[in-house]
């Protein structure tokens, strides 16, 4: 079974976009592990709004398949993306995850992330925490319907102050297995 990895840039205060939808706060001065990430990733899951944002630059992603989750997007002549309608969501995702291939990057947007998290379809979370506090914007997690347990895998720091953390999602959350100081 292929892994679905949520890989996103996030501000220190938990936003994936600024108050006006801006991304100008994301550091882009170095690779930040993306070449290594793409060495084992061959597909992207992306929501319709996020797809519209990157549509003209989608060729920059070195993946074999881009799956767009939308009930309204129509492909233009020559585009080879695959569109997944909400009515076919679970069946199609299960088929894709259970075929041979590399990891799948859950690119976003926020609604698609919530859907994948609530359906427990995310295998790992890889967050690039940028050294900025935005004070508002689109939160990383919204409308999550129940607690999600995580297991820490690794972290990496960069000289710019960016901190990258990787977690594996527990198949279920058992609060009895966690100990809190109190």
Structure description:
The protein is of the alpha/beta class. The chain has one domain (4-177): Dihydrofolate Reductase, subunit A (3-Layer(aba) Sandwich), CATH 3.40.430.10. Helix content is 16%, strand content 31%. The chain is built from 4 helices and 10 strands; from the N terminus they run ββαβαββαβαββββ. The chain has helices at residues 34-38, 48-54, 89-97, 110-118, and strands at 4-11, 15-17, 41-47, 65-69, 82-84, 103-108, 124-130, 138-139, 150-157, 163-169. The strands form 2 sheets. The chain has an 8-stranded mixed β-sheet. A two-stranded antiparallel ribbon has the order 2-8. The longest helix has 9 residues, at 89-97. It is globular, with a radius of gyration of 17 Å.
CATH class: Alpha Beta
Mean pLDDT: 91
| Strand percent estimate | 25-35%
CATH superfamily: Dihydrofolate Reductase, subunit A
List keywords for this structure.
4 helices; 31% strand; 10 strands; 182 residues; alpha/beta; eight-stranded mixed sheet; Dihydrofolate Reductase, subunit A
Annotate the secondary structure layout.
Elements (H helix, E strand, L loop, with lengths): L3 E8 L3 E3 L16 H5 L2 E7 H7 L10 E5 L12 E3 L4 H9 L5 E6 L1 H9 L5 E7 L7 E2 L10 E8 L5 E7 L13
Parallel strand pairs: 1-6, 1-7, 3-4, 3-6, 4-5
Antiparallel strand pairs: 2-8, 7-10, 9-10
Summarize the structure.
This protein has four helices and ten strands, in the order E-E-H-E-H-E-E-H-E-H-E-E-E-E. The chain is α/β, with parallel strands linked by helices. The chain has one domain (4-177): 3-Layer(aba) Sandwich (Dihydrofolate Reductase, subunit A), CATH 3.40.430.10.
């Amino acid at each position: 079974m292929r892994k679905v990895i949520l890989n996103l840039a996030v501000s220190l205060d938990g936003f994936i976009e600024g108050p006006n939808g801006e991304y100008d706060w994301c550091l882009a001065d170095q690779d930040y592990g993306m070449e290594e990430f793409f060495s084992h990733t061959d597909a992207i899951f992306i929501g319709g709004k996020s797809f519209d944002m990157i549509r003209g630059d989608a060729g920059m992603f070195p993946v074999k398949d881009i799956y767009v989750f939308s009930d309204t997007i129509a492909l233009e002549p020559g585009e080879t993306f695959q569109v997944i309608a909400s009515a076919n969501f679970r069946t199609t995702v299960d088929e894709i995850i259970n075929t041979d291939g590399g990891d799948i990057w859950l690119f976003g947007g926020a609604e698609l992330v919530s859907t994948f998290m609530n359906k427990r379809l995310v295998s790992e979370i890889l967050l690039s925490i940028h050294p900025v506090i935005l004070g508002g914007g689109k939160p990383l997690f919204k409308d999550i319907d129940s607690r999600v347990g995580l297991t820490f895998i690794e972290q990496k720091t960069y000289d710019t102050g960016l901190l990258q953390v990787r977690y594996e999602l527990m198949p279920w959350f058992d609060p009895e297995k966690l100990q809190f100081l109190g």
